[in-house]
Every structure is written in C-alpha cells, then in structure tokens.
From TrEMBL:
Belongs to the PAL/histidase family. Its EC number is 4.3.1.3. There is a cross-link at residues 145-147 (5-imidazolinone (Ala-Gly)). It comes from the Bacteria. Contains an active site 4-methylidene-imidazol-5-one (MIO), which is formed autocatalytically by cyclization and dehydration of residues Cys-Ser-Gly. It comes from Streptomyces rubrolavendulae. One of its GO terms (molecular function) is histidine ammonia-lyase activity. The modification 2,3-didehydroalanine (Ser) is found at residue 146. The lineage of its organism: Bacteria, Bacillati, Actinomycetota, Actinomycetes, Kitasatosporales. Pathway: Amino-acid degradation; L-histidine degradation into L-glutamate; N-formimidoyl-L-glutamate from L-histidine: step 1/3. InterPro entries: Aromatic_Lyase (IPR001106), Fumarase/histidase_N (IPR024083), HutH (IPR005921), L-Aspartase-like (IPR008948), Phe/His_NH3-lyase_AS (IPR022313). PANTHER family: HISTIDINE AMMONIA-LYASE. This is Histidine ammonia-lyase. Pfam families: Lyase_aromatic.
C-alpha cells in the first residue's frame, strides 16, 4: 500500500484525499485538533446520558421508535442492536474503493467533533483503513436519507468484530479473524456511537468524488476522440476558433474547443476534400457541435464539484453536538444536494456517449464518410470491418440513456412514515458508476475507429498529436487496419488504454496540458 498519509482534522477533507485513501491505499492519521474535538464532544454526550430527560440517539430508540426512553442498563445493547439490525444489505458486493471512501468520509465527520463519538472509536476506524480491512457492503440497502444506512452499518459491524470483511490480500473472512490477525480489538459502542457511525451521505459522496475524477479524464479523452473523428472525416477546424466560442461564453465549451484545436494543429487532413466532392461548408452536428456538448458536460461537472466540496466540508449526523454544548436534531443527512448532481452527471455522460457514437457511425458509413471504405473494412463484403463494434457502442449508449433517468425524482416512504421522503442518492451514485464505465467503452470504440480511419487516408499526413496517439495505441497492442480478426480483445485493449489515461498522456506529450 502507498505510504502517503492523509491527516484527518476538524474542518473536512479534500477530493484528492478521498481518492488517495479509496484508490491508492493512503494511510489515515487523526490530527491532535481532531482528537481534542472528539474528547470535548464526548464530554457533552456523557453529561446528557447521565440526565433523566430523554435525548434522541443517546437515551431513546431510533426513527419511528424514538418515543421509547432507554435506561442506562440497555444502552450498550441499544447501540450494538442498531448496527446489527441496520446491516441489512442485499445483492452483489460493492467495490473495495467505494467502501474505503465510505469509511474514510464517515471518519472525517466523526473527527469534526460534532458527533459525540469517543476518540478511541475514531482511532479504531482509522486502524481498520490502515490495516487494509474492507467490510463487505452490499449493493442494496440505502435510500440516501438518514444516511447510507445499510452500507455504513456493515462497516460499523466489522468495527465491532462481526460480519465479513475483505483482507488486504483480497480474501473474505469473518471480521473478527481479520481484526485479530492485525492486532486490533473489536469496539464496544456506547451512547450515540452506533447511530453516529450510520448517519451520513458518505457512500454517495465518495462515489461522486471518484466519478468526478474519472470524468475529468474522460472529457479530455472525448475532446481528443472528437478531434480524431473530425480529422478522419476531413472536416473543418474553423468552427473551433476561439473567437466563435467567446461570443457564447460557456467556459466548458471554450475549453473543449481549445483542446480539439490543439490536437488538430498541423493536420494535413483537416479541410481536405475528395476530388469528386464539392467543398463542404459545414460538418454534421456530431462533429461541428462537439465542443458545445462536451462543454455543457464540463460545466455540469463544475457545479457537481462545488456541491462535493461543500459536502466534504460538512459534518453530517443526527443529532449533532454544537460548539455551545447543545445536542440538536436536524435533517442534514438528507442526500438531495448530492443526489441531484449525481443524476445531472448521468445525463451529461449519456449525451457525450451519444454524440461519440454518432461520429463513429459516420466513420463507418460509406455514404457519409467522404471516401473511407465501408465499415473501414479491408475487403468490404468479405470483411465486415467495424460493423459490430458500432453495435456494441450503440448498446452501451442505449443503456446509458436508461441510466440517465433520475433516481432523485423518486422517493419511497420508510420507517412507518417517519422517514417519508428520501433522496435515493445511493442509487443515483451506483448507476452513475455504471454509466461512466459505459462512457469509457464508447470512447474506446470511437478511438479505435477514428485511428483506423486516419491510417486509411493514404497520402495524407495527420496532426503530430494524432500520430503520437496512434503510435501509443499501437504500442499498447491495438493493431491498425487489416483483414477481419477477433475484435473483442482489441476493443478491450483500447478500453484499458482509455481507462489508464493513455489517450490524454499521448496527446499531451505533443500539445502540452489540455484544459
């Protein structure tokens, strides 16, 4: 594991820290300020616990059962029971990186000093992350309100030495065995602590942060593949000039156009016309409007990033311990702010994939490709070329359109109508992760087609950036034009090349950093 250390303080965290812990295995350390804040807040909770008056989460039941006052002798059992009963997830296991993000973000809120959790519980949470122990969390169980309850409960269950978890070697074992193997003791939860470990937007927020990191690379990749398709179709780069985008000053649009123009600099294909064709005044929308579509998605990402930054600075729990010593109930656990932007991003991703698929289809259609062979085949009729690669791309886009239907527009009442409006933010995050994987594959197919098409423009010289990208792709095991061959492995290799950032890296060696 990476020995980089992320220090958790009282004022939130950064997106970079979330990615470092979730994906790169960075170690976690609590700051002295956080430990002091934890101790002060716990004094408040202990004082309230000693009073006869009921306090929600400290000396009462939960949700619709909050009317029952719980005596001292039952409170440890109460906190243990909420974790056990709420760990009710079902379905496939959630990815390790998502669970680590979830655990880290819960620790971030606990360390704020607003939850009333003891310092030793926070240390135990950090120890679990640092040991590489990842609780088994299931796909279904969160409504995105009152926190990501079931997912967080499965994490808290492992902290108690119960349930299953994945060790650093990838093997799933009983959590108690893994704790013992790493010299860690199970935690016995006290007043409010069970509730505090379950009540946050941490799962959906972690997935939002990682989605933004992925989309930042994919939007740059989409600018590159759009530029390559324009080049392969002998399109014009005049529409990319900055003065045209300055008069419609959406920042994302200007950035996308600038990226495409940088990639196409020095191209011998752009603006070239076939001898038997009349000069084209305009290219098709899928080519000409690429910056407008990619730019709108970029601006959507900017808004989503702002929401993520605010949520990363938040302390989400109910009730919360305030600096003046009050413990107050609230509704800050409602996931609507995060859920909305997760859905917005799914819409933007679907549209970006849709326009990329249209460009690919144009490259394969001899009636619209301006002189390219049908389906970019070696011997059309004997060879089918990339015909079915476009089918695969179309299937991916079609699924993305379904995934773009907003989860946050739905709500199902729960907890005997006490929790009668929920955000479905976890569901929005889960479908966005699927959509991002599909978008990556769609762009990989466009990359595969556009690079082949450029190489089929015999006698014409591509832009230096395009040439560098083609060379890098071929070096990665993705072959160029030729007779039909088993296509799936090459498409998989192209997908891996996109996933690893190879498109952007190859181009930036020529263009410098893309926007």
């Amino acid at each position: 594991m990476d020995m980089h250390t992320v220090v958790v303080g009282t004022s939130g965290t950064t997106a970079a820290d979330v990615v470092a812990v979730a994906r790169d295995g960075a170690r976690v350390e609590l700051s002295p300020e956080a430990l002091d804040a934890l101790a002060r807040a716990r004094e408040t909770v202990d004082a309230l616990a000693a009073k006869p008056e009921p306090v929600y989460g400290v000396s009462t039941g939960f949700g619709a059962l909050a009317t029952r006052h719980i005596g001292q002798e039952l409170r440890t059992r109460l906190q243990r029971n909420i974790v056990r009963s709420h760990a009710a997830g079902m379905g496939p296991r959630v990815e390790r990186e998502v669970v680590r993000a979830l655990m880290f973000l819960r620790l971030k809120t606990v360390a704020s000093g607003h939850t009333g959790v003891r310092p030793q519980v926070a240390r135990a949470m950090a120890d679990l992350l640092n040991a590489g122990i990842t609780p088994v969390v299931h796909e279904y169980g969160s409504l995105g309100c009152s926190g990501d309850l079931a997912p967080l409960s499965h994490c808290a269950l492992a902290l108690m030495g119960e349930g299953d978890a994945e060790g650093p070697d990838g093997t799933v074992r009983p959590a108690a065995e893994l704790l013992a193997a790493h010299g860690l003791a199970p935690v016995e939860l006290r007043e409010k602590e069970g509730l505090a470990l379950l009540n946050g937007t941490d799962g959906m927020l972690g997935m939002l942060v990682m989605a933004l990191a992925d989309l930042e690379t994919l939007y740059k990749t989409a600018d590159v593949t759009a530029a390559l398709s324009l080049e392969a179709l002998l399109g014009t780069d005049k529409v990319l000039r900055p003065e045209l985008h300055a008069i419609r000053p959406h920042p994302g649009q200007g950035a996308a156009a600038a990226n495409m123009l940088a990639v196409l600099e020095g191209s011998g294909l752009v603006g070239h016309f076939q001898a038997d064709e009349a000069p084209r005044v305009q290219d098709a929308y899928s080519v000409r409007c690429a910056p407008q579509v990619a730019g709108a998605g970029r601006d959507t990402m900017a808004h989503a990033r702002l929401v993520a930054e605010r949520e990363l600075a938040a302390a989400v729990d109910n009730p919360v311990v305030l600096p003046d010593g009050r413990v107050e109930s609230n509704g800050n656990f409602h996931g609507a702010p995060v859920a909305y932007v997760l859905d917005f991003l799914a819409v933007a991703a679907a549209d970006l994939a849709s326009i990329a698929e249209r460009r690919t289809d144009r490259l394969l259609d001899k009636n619209r490709s301006h002189g390219l062979p049908p389906f970019l085949a070696d011997d059309a009729g004997v060879d089918s070329g990339l015909m079915i690669a476009q089918y695969t791309q179309a299937a991916l886009v079609s699924e993305m359109k379904r995934l773009a239907v907003p989860a946050s527009a739905d709500s199902i009442p729960s907890s005997a109508m006490q929790e009668d409006h929920v955000s479905m933010g976890w569901s929005a995050a889960r479908k966005l992760r699927t959509a991002i994987g599909n978008l990556r594959r769609v762009l990989a197919v466009e990359l595969y087609a556009a690079t082949r098409a450029i190489e089929l423009r015999h006698g014409l010289t591509p832009a230096p950036a395009s040439r560098a990208l083609i060379d890098a792709l071929r070096a990665a095991g993705v072959a160029g034009p030729g007779p039909d061959r088993f296509l799936a492995p090459e498409l998989e290799a192209a997908d891996a090349f996109v996933r690893d950032g190879g498109v952007v890296a190859a181009v930036e060696r020529v263009t410098g950093p893309l926007a």
